[in-house]
């Protein structure tokens, strides 16, 4: 993740936009805007022409939407994306919907667009009134409604435009539903007007290895169809790219090929090992990470098993899903994080949607006090999955703020038969008491996304606070230092090594990774796509240099200064186009 960088300037006739680079890479492709929301056809919009022909058009539009979604499901990059698309396709093909709309055309002489809109709205309202799972599907019906109306009008469907030719996607920000179905062979880069370094857009871009720039004001005003140059490391978007930018793209391709030779081991120039692990969700993610050379899993986000559910998955179902992940890492370490529901990841059966301040509310480990039992059953499922493999399973709790919480979590995990227990350090409270926490538990993992948000009191999803919300902030680096010092003391007093990992997005920034190692972090965990770049840069520095660069960053007055000072000392970054 990189901040604003003014090294690239525009030539006459070019326009440059500066944002926050959140995923490296350089590409040139035409800019395509996210399709706007479909507008409601006017109330009473009258039918023109033959009613039977209008009903036929309506049915044909619904079938075309179904066919398009089914076809996209067959090309989806993950099982979960395919499921989302298949479910939406089924709704588009629902005969009851077109039948009701058809009746409105023939009996009330409404245009097919208005008739479909009205029929689908009634359907969505009924579902909403039923509550629970049905209520959640109401938004899907509204999505289908927009797609069929767009089809009838001959407009682009809302959301990510479907094109065969590669393009750069410009958007205000991307919602999880948009990102789930994005095809990285066609969408070559993401540029957004808002969104922060830890937003869904940023995390998705890093997972897919797509260059991305967020919080870039002016992106939405650029006219669509024109070629743009995106530099995901510098955080810039340039119009009218010329030979210089073409050379930069070619250089990035060469560097990517060089990085492809990553052998999976993390070490410094002096041979000091720094295990490089992956952040993963479901089984397909884990297999991809193993293939990319990850030495283990530093963060298994178990939310994948719960999201989109209105009831808790059974212990057997959970155990099966976790076992699939563990199977990809036989004999290696897998750190399983228990459910982190709440804030940006709400769950209907666990979190209270009316909380005024969800990021400061009942989220993560805290849900155990409001809905006891879910956590214990999850630990039981993790233990059952662990029994089926030789993976070295560690468990940790998210959103810990006190020693007592850490100890209670450990007790629950031990009761379930899980031996290696730790907690995430995501709150300043946990960072400041890391020594006392580590006197009791086995390890900690720094969740720098949330630790930054809570240290800086800046919502991680807000593009307007992107500068504050940087893990390069000296205050955040001091928190990290406090944790590694606490761990060293706890290691001495207990006589047992206490591992400090980082599993927030900070670990995926090669320059920051060097600083984190210099601050005393033992292991780094990141999206699999970032492993090779981090490994390549770590190999160019020795332990003494990592310490010196950590001092440099700690002594800076702000994130930009810290980052610039460190980057200036790491020539490998420029050589690799990072
Ligand atoms: C973090 O906060 O850094 C983290 C890894 O957790 P998440 O991004 O899932 O909140
Ligand atoms: Mg977190």
UniProtKB/TrEMBL annotation:
Residues 165-235 form the PEP-utilising enzyme mobile domain. It catalyses: L-histidyl-[protein] + phosphoenolpyruvate = N(pros)-phospho-L-histidyl-[protein] + pyruvate. It is found in: Cytoplasm. Its main location: cytoplasm. GO terms for biological process: phosphoenolpyruvate-dependent sugar phosphotransferase system. Belongs to the PEP-utilizing enzyme family. It comes from Kocuria rhizophila (strain ATCC 9341 / DSM 348 / NBRC 103217 / DC2201). Its cofactor is Mg(2+). Phosphoenolpyruvate binds at residues 301, 337, 449-450, 460. GO terms for molecular function: kinase activity; metal ion binding; phosphoenolpyruvate-protein phosphotransferase activity. GO terms for cellular component: cytoplasm. This is Phosphoenolpyruvate-protein phosphotransferase. The lineage of its organism: Bacteria, Bacillati, Actinomycetota, Actinomycetes, Micrococcales.
């Amino acid at each position: 993740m990189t901040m604003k960088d003014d090294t690239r300037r525009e030539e006459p006739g070019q326009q440059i936009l500066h944002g926050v680079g959140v995923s490296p890479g350089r590409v040139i492709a035409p800019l395509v805007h996210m399709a706007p929301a479909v507008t409601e056809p006017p109330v009473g919009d009258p039918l023109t022409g033959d009613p039977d022909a209008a009903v036929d058009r309506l049915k044909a539009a619904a079938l075309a939407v179904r066919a398009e979604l089914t076809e996209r499901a067959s090309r989806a990059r993950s099982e979960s994306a395919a499921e989302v698309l298949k479910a939406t396709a089924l709704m588009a093909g629902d005969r009851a919907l077109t039948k009701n709309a058809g009746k409105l055309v023939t009996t009330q002489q409404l245009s097919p667009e208005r008739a479909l809109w009205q029929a689908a709205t009634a359907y969505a309202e009924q579902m909403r009134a039923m509550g629970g799972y049905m209520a959640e599907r109401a938004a899907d019906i509204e999505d289908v409604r927009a797609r069929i109306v767009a089809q009838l009008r001959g407009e682009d469907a809302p959301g990510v435009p479907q094109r065969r030719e590669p393009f750069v996607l410009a958007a205000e920000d991307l919602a999880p539903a948009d990102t789930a179905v994005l095809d990285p062979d066609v969408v070559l880069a993401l540029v957004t007007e808002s969104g922060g370094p830890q937003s869904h857009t940023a995390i998705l871009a890093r997972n897919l290895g797509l260059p991305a720039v967020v919080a870039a004001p002016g992106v939405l005003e650029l006219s669509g169809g024109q070629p743009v140059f995106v530099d995901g490391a510098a955080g810039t978007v340039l119009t009218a790219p010329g030979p210089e930018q073409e050379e930069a793209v070619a250089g990035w391709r060469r560097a990517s090929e060089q990085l492809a030779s990553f052998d999976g081991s993390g070490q410094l120039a002096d041979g000091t090992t720094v295990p490089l692990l992956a952040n993963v969700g479901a089984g397909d993610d884990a297999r991809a990470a193993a293939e990319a050379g990850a030495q283990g899993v530093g963060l298994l986000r178990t939310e994948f098993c719960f999201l989109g559910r209105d009831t808790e998955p059974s212990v057997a179902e959970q155990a099966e899903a976790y076992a699939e992940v563990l199977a990809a890492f036989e004999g290696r370490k897998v750190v399983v994080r228990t459910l982190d529901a709440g804030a940006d990841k709400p769950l209907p059966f666990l979190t209270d949607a009316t909380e005024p301040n969800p990021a400061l509310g009942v989220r993560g480990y805290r849900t155990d006090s409001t809905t006891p039992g879910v956590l214990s059953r999850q630990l039981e499922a993790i233990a059952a999955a662990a029994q089926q493999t030789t993976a070295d399973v560690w468990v940790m709790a998210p959103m810990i703020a006190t020693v007592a919480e850490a100890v209670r979590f450990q007790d629950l995990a031990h009761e379930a038969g899980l031996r290696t227990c730790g907690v995430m350090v995501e709150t300043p409270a946990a960072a400041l008491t890391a020594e006392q926490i580590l006197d009791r538990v086995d390890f900690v993992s720094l969740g720098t996304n949330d630790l930054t948000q809570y240290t800086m009191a800046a919502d991680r999803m807000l593009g307007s606070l992107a500068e504050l919300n940087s893990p390069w902030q000296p205050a955040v680096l001091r928190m990290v230092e406090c944790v590694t010092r606490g761990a060293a003391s706890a290691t001495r007093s207990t006589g047992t090594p206490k591992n400090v990992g980082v599993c927030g997005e900070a670990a995926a920034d090669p320059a920051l990774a060097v600083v984190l190692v210099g601050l005393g972090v033992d292991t780094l965990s990141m999206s699999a796509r970032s492993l090779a770049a981090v490994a390549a840069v770590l190999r160019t520095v020795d332990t003494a240099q990592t310490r010196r660069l950590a001092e440099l960053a700690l002594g800076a007055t702000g994130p930009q200064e810290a980052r610039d000072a460190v980057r200036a000392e790491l020539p490998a970054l420029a050589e690799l186009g990072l």
